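Trying the structure run again after the queue cleared.
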Amino acid sequence: MDELEILYEDNHLIAINKHASDLAQGDNTGDAPLADKVANYLKVKYNKPGNVFVGVTHRLDRPVSGVMIFARTSKALERMNNLFKEKTELDKIYWAIVEKRPQQPEGKLINYLRKNEKQNKSYICEPAAQGAKEAQLEYRLLDESEKYYLLEIKLLTGRHHQIRVQLANIGCIIKGDLKYGARRSNADGSICLHARRICFTHPVSKQEITITAPVPNDTLWKFFEQRQQ
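Done. Tokens:
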């Protein structure tokens, strides 16, 4: 079994640094989802008989890496689900490596998106379009290399493929994201989008928790991460 990269663990929650190849939850590929790997880890570590409870509190697309939080109790799952839904006591910060510099070094993007289930892809649409959902994010330019640009993104809503489609709409296509117009794929099938940090109020202790995920083990990612330290 792949070694889990554990970022945080207590009696109620466990946070993993998801690798781009990891599946957040089961799909038609039949590959073992991350939740199953976490359950197996907890079962072995704590020598638990029978099934181990692991609740999925939020999702990341398969080619995306970064912080994923799982609940270890049903109470924690319910409260974390509410946090992610309300977004009042929770901040999700992403890093994205994009192919083009944004026209403005920082800004807020507001669009309406519609998901095409058959294509598993979202499109920008008119507010009145059937199935349209408002999508909002804030971004700022953190750094640049010879060819690429590092953006920090704060998600204000949680729509399907939101960051990918909204950045592509302003010409800032995420490196490796063929689905939304990248020039070429990444060798490992990832896209250069990373859930860098989650800050939230713990559902039980009520303490402020910040969990930061190291970037993937990749030359370009490491270049940018080192320059941010």
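Residues 223 and 229 are 11 Å apart (CA to CA). Worth checking whether this holds up in the mutant runs.
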